[in-house]
Write a structure and sequence with these properties.
Mean pLDDT: 92
Distance between the termini: 39 Å
CATH topology of the largest domain: Glycerol-3-phosphate (1)-acyltransferase
Number of helices: 12
CATH class of the largest domain: Alpha Beta
Low-confidence stretches: none
Number of domains: 2
Helix content: 40-55%
Strand content: 5-15%
CATH architecture of the largest domain: 3-Layer(aba) Sandwich
Largest sheet: 8 strands, mixed
Strand order of the largest sheet: 1-5-4-6-3-9-10-2
Structural class: alpha/beta
């Protein structure tokens, strides 16, 4: 056998070995991801073989020594650089020549504000599990240091799902249980609420320190296709936006709020319906991906800000930010 065939044969053996150690459900998911990845990258799969071997090792390590995420998790860079692993894994799937970052002048502005000690909060849509890695890949060409500074507000699934954990370990995360899952299972609700309280306290301290950039998806989940097969930006929760706004005001550190549209759906589409159980099907494709950074949003002056009813004004603010992200996403969708 030639070197490529030998490498692939060894990978297949490694896949079989790790699948025998995994729960049957996850073994089927891993095989599906492996096959779809191979199809997607074609001949480039040979160069990705080392990354896949590492992925098998990281899954095995997680099976033997489960990792516990703190309320504020900082990316693991040593002895294994999980941040670089995530980028290396996703990069062969990204059609870079056809990918775009719109609003680079805004990114320049964000970088300047961070250097001056201000905070930036990105109100964004969310489409795939590896959105943090996709963002890092697209910003590497122009703003690699900024990409490494982003703190992601992460839900339970990305810190609990066996397949997602190695990628999550390479990100800075504020781990929080979303409304959607906090009652599941009921006996853990109090524990999850305490965890969220600790996360909020840590976030408050980070905002007080300044110079922080935080990505949050106010929808609480990923975008999905509608009945007509069109990917829709999921509605934003105005209460989530309000919470970040109030926390930023309490910190008394200058904080800027930017809409961010993410178009990564095709690289790893989510399940068609929301599921509470861990272990979702994963099938990937090679595709262009896009980002659109919008100018800072004025949280005090917007369409509807003159509304005297506090709850109505809160909803109008959330709707205004969602509308901006939706418009930006439609621009990105036209690029694909």
């Amino acid at each position: 056998m030639d070197n490529a065939s030998t490498s692939e044969h060894l990978l297949e053996e490694g896949l079989d070995r790790i699948c025998r150690k995994m729960p049957e459900k996850y073994a089927a998911i891993l095989r599906e991801l492996y096959r779809s990845y191979r199809r997607a990258v074609g001949q480039s799969f040979v160069s990705a073989s080392a990354t896949w071997r590492l992925f098998f090792e990281l899954i095995e390590e997680e099976l033997e020594h489960p990792y516990t995420f703190a309320p504020y998790h900082q990316k693991v860079r040593s002895p294994i650089d999980y941040y670089q692993f995530g980028i290396d894994f996703l990069l062969p799937l990204v059609d870079l020549p056809r990918s775009h970052v719109l609003g680079l002048n805004v990114v320049d502005e964000i970088a300047l504000r961070l250097s001056e000690g201000a905070n930036v909060i990105l109100f964004a849509n969310h489409q795939t599990e590896p959105d943090p890695q996709a963002i890092a890949i697209l910003l590497q060409r122009t703003h690699p240091k900024l990409a490494e500074k982003i703190i992601y507000v992460a839900g339970e699934r990305v810190i609990s799902d066996l397949m997602a954990i190695p990628f999550s370990m390479g990100c800075d995360l504020l781990c929080i249980y979303s409304k959607r899952y906090i009652d599941h299972p009921p006996e853990l609700k109090a524990q999850k609420q305490l965890h969220n309280k600790q996360t909020m306290e840590k976030m408050s301290r980070l905002l007080q320190e300044g110079g922080k950039i935080i990505y949050v998806a106010p929808s609480g989940g990923r975008d999905r296709r509608n009945f007509e097969g069109v990917v829709e930006v999921a509605p934003f929760d105005p209460d989530s936006i309000e919470m970040f706004y109030l926390m930023a005001r309490k910190a008394k550190t200058p904080t800027y709020f930017h809409p961010l549209a993410v178009a990564t759906y095709n690289i790893l589409p989510p399940p068609e319906t929301i599921q509470k159980e861990l272990g979702e099907s994963r099938s990937t494709k090679r595709t262009p991906i896009h980002l659109f950074f919008g100018p800072a949003f004025d949280m005090e002056h917007f369409t509807g800000s003159e509304e005297s009813d506090r709850l109505k004004r809160r909803k109008m603010r959330g709707d205004a930010i969602w509308s901006l992200v939706k418009q930006q996403y439609q621009t990105l969708d036209a690029l694909s």
